[in-house]
Amino acid sequence: MTAETTPAETGRDFIRDIVQADLDAKRHASIVTRFPPEPNGYLHIGHAKSIALNFGIAQEFGGRCHLRFDDTNPAKEEQEYIDSIQRDVRWLGFDWGDNLFYASDYFERLYGWAEDLIRAGLAYVDDQSQEEIRLARGTLTEPGRNSPFRDRGVEENLDLFRRMKAGEFANGARVLRAKIDMASGNINLRDPVLYRILHAEHPRTGRAWSIYPSYDYAHGQSDAIEGITHSICTLEFEDHRPLYDWFLDKLPVPSHPRQYEFARLNLTYTLLSKRVLTELVRGQHVGGWDDPRMPTIAGLRRRGVPPEAIREFIRRIGVAKANSVVDVGMLEFCIREVLNRTAQRRMAVLRPLKVVIENYPEGQSEELEAVNHPDDPAAGTRKVTFGRELYIERDDFMEDPPKKFFRLAPGREVRLRYAYFITCRQAVKDASGEVIELRCTYDPATRGGNAPDGRKVKATMHWLPAAESIPAEVRIYNPLFTNPAPDAANFTADLNPDSLEVLSDARIEPTMANATADDVVQFERQGYFVRDRDSMQDKPVFNRTIGLRDSFVKDVAKG
Ligand code: ATP
Ligand code: MG
Question: Strand order in 521-523's β-sheet?
């Protein structure tokens, strides 16, 4: 685990400490936080950290948390994203109640305040191109240069700004900028852009606006309108805080929220950037936003990851003020921990090898009892059918096994889980020399899996009846990137060509025929699996949520 576990173990972190201190000092009657996604993509597990923090603080301190869409850039925003974000926040287990807001609800007020800034000589219309503005901004070591339009009079500014709003000018022809200080050591204060011209259809306001506020201008004022007490965001906004405060100081806003920054979540083998995730979808490197290989909430859900595991993961990593990278193994640990507790056990054979039990009477079969959960007797038992023809896992047989291979081999006896001891008598091969069938015998005295004479076997294997088991497709997911620190700028170079493995000849227990996409099961010795929504009537599809660690060692020990 990482060094970040410490704050979580105490249940406290520096932001919760600030909130507690503010309440103790009676600076606020109650706490109001917000989660402010831009609806330009699906939420990912990094967002889950922000969601759990904002909604978690509101819950713990008896306050409320708003869901506010930062819908200020209609060029990239869509209703589909607005809908998916609400679905995902709810699925994660959080509730905004009546507090659903949109920055676009405030467009009128934000516009009025922009006119106030112009009247106060604190904003001006700049006719320079985006490129000219960029070039004049200076660098970390060099001051910027004043725009030739910086000293326009109030009346001219008001007139031009109103005409920008009325849609008289083309995209990019002009912007409204704050008049702060082109020599500021903080580049964010070098006359930042407040409004740009954009003729586009907005999901909520349609064509009503031809100008849209920048993030910096909209965000703090939206917080102030909603009475947010603690505006919690990620570290990259630390340098924006002076600007956040500048607007709130200059404008007649109803409250003055405080901004606090925390470290964003980074995960090994994962890219958490909406730009990259959008390109993965658009470039068809994955099947969509909810592809189970995606680190999106929708992808994790489709993969079978329970929301409880995500919340537990977020709790464990804690909240800190220094950026770090969390091992994706920690997320996997949390997923296994929850599923080990909650998932019922079943058997599935992913790569079947036929077994014929030569001394089992033809045309006969029997029902054996299988346990649904080893640690939870209340989960009950189910029947599995044993007969003359079975399937076992192809990997569980080796014709010429190395020393440490304890599973089936010619002449060797193993236990079939819940059933009998069987001994391999012969491997039948096809013309190319591939083993296509095993001829075995069983010991009728070992029914239920124990020998009355106390003799031991070194392996217990899962199996299915050939006739009664159901064909299924199983999808195994591997990391999307081969590089533990994928390069966001050139991510296609780090894509894993084997991130998806499709096993189309798998077999599952008949009890799984009506499984739903909500019930994750453990296929014994294989891992955790969930039915995919792609499943067809005649052939179910199962996603592997995650494999079992050290499954082989563990099963041998249990055997
Ligand atoms: P990305 O950086 O992936 O494009 P974003 O920051 O542009 O995401 P927003 O919709 O603006 O996406 O994010 C909403 C909130 O989620 C913001 O407060 C942002 O700080 C937070 N957030 C985004 N990514 C992470 C992350 N990796 N870890 C923690 N919080 C995050
Ligand atoms: Mg953002």
Answer: 344-346, 521-523, 527-531, 541-547, 470-477, 500-508, 348-349
